[in-house]
């Protein structure tokens, strides 16, 4: 993986992706006690950054591969990214999704034209199901993070941050990234290394699913103990990827971990003061920016708000907690 | 009022306001049966476009006026705009707000440093209270819409639309605007007249509070029959302004009216497919774009999403309606 692949992705994506702007809020800065710049990828097409990698990967397929179709597995954000990008290439897509995925993600994936295959997270292997489909139907598999084209697409977020942060006068900052398998984090880290070497990517994870923080701490890939039961459905990857981990190990600072309570409070903060809908997984970096101590992260800090595909019931639950953010 | 005042406002606001980008959604286009470009002013500082006019008006005050402070009346969006702009000018501010205003608006206005005076919407006149305060304390009154500096500030939304729409290849469109007293609509209409004469501003109002639509239809200022009881608290102005109405009459197409049910459905659509939090008043133009018939508005169409300051309880109520948007 090198910066050239990310720059090529940026060229492919130029007229397709939405260049999400850096935002800020006086009240959130005051609450956090530090200046926070926010990169709202929840506003990206399909509601998360995943469309970037998906489009980049699909646009690289041959005519024959496009004619045969693609298959992917995903709890719902990669799913929607693949669905839209495939539709735009007149390419059929099949997505393997857990049956307990948020209903909004399942509905939107179907609405964008994908065939959705549901599986039981506790009993079945999504990789096996997808590989079987690929074999039977001649589909090309597009992995959610351990794919150079996917990492390169996600890395365009880092190119935009490097460019936009300068116009905000920020030349030195931690860039907090919600981290599952590490596709977004590693792509951003590579883009920052080349374009803003004084910026440093930091992985953000919820308690109980801190495989990347532990992996970075121990210098080797560590796995999560469980793969269900958490609030943050989109970033419950089993462990950092084979491709993504070496990049993160080389370039990222220590991993950051927040509580689910802090994630819910960050969702409320985004509702009240940014007017953004964040899903739990997409609010992890904001939670770190708002609530972690001053010696753990930089001031100013940049937080990537990675997705907003949340069911109304979960969102309403977060709002109903009626948290006093000043506390 | 002329375009020169709006251009001067744009220069004053350049480093202060957030240049909200034009957004789009494949799924919303499909639902609406037309191409919709969205201008999300809910993402503006303080959660609505009102900061633009407030900052422009306050930045025009003399040192003596700034030292004495300002007073305004508002149900909450102009309030927050004034509060932040005053704070940035080290100027004291007093805001007269109805006691039934959304709690979030009252809290945020206080949090931004304003003194809030609550009044009873049914029994007291907000103008009288504000005028009395202005007299007693030597404060400068900044009206919510019938003020040339305020209209000019809001008009910068129109300059941005004219500029951004071209880069989306749109050169001919209705621009739908949530309309209370007409400050935003008249400012946008003036900006479009000068910079995108093939674009036409259209007022959007909720049923029961359609004073502007009736005024445009009859060619004279008509009032609302009531000033409370509606879902759209931010645009329940008594009637179009003395300054704003002649501009709207000259430049706008026929006024558009939507139901409160359509407003709630537009809030759900923005939650699901744009990841934006809209307050009811800020969703009126989106409701028109999504649900009005094809012979009433253009395709493509541009909708200004004017604000997102909604209490969690109202937002949760909208989400709980569990509307099938396809229906």
Description:
- The structure is a homodimer of 327-residue chains.
- The first copy, chain A, has 14 helices and 9 strands.
- By secondary structure, the first copy, chain A, is α/β, with parallel strands linked by helices.
- In chain A, helix 1 crosses helix 8 and helix 5 runs parallel beside helix 6.
- The first copy, chain A, has 2 domains: 220 residues, Rossmann fold; 92 residues, Rossmann fold, CATH 3.40.50.
- In chain A, the strands form 2 sheets. Chain A has a 5-stranded parallel sheet with strand order 1-9-6-7-8, with helices on both faces.
- The first copy, chain A, is globular and about 55 Å long.
- Helix content of chain A is 45%, strand content 13%.
- Chain A starts with a helix and ends in a 7-residue tail after the last helix.
- The mean pLDDT of chain A is 96.
- At the A-B interface, helix 2, helix 6, helix 12 and helix 14 of A face helix 2, helix 6, helix 12 and helix 14 of B.
Question: What is the element layout, followed by pairings?
Answer:
The structure is a homodimer of 327-residue chains.
Chain A: H1 3-13, H2 26-32, E1 36-40, H3 50-59, H4 63-68, E2 70-73, H5 77-88, E3 93-98, H6 103-111, E4 115-119, H7 126-137, E5 140-141, H8 148-167, E6 173-178, H9 183-195, E7 199-206, H10 211-218, H11 244-251, E8 256-258, H12 260-274, H13 284-291, E9 301-305, H14 312-320
Parallel strand pairs in A: 1-9, 2-3, 2-5, 3-4, 6-7, 6-9, 7-8
Helix pairs in contact in A: 1-8, 3-5, 3-8, 5-6, 8-9, 9-11, 12-13
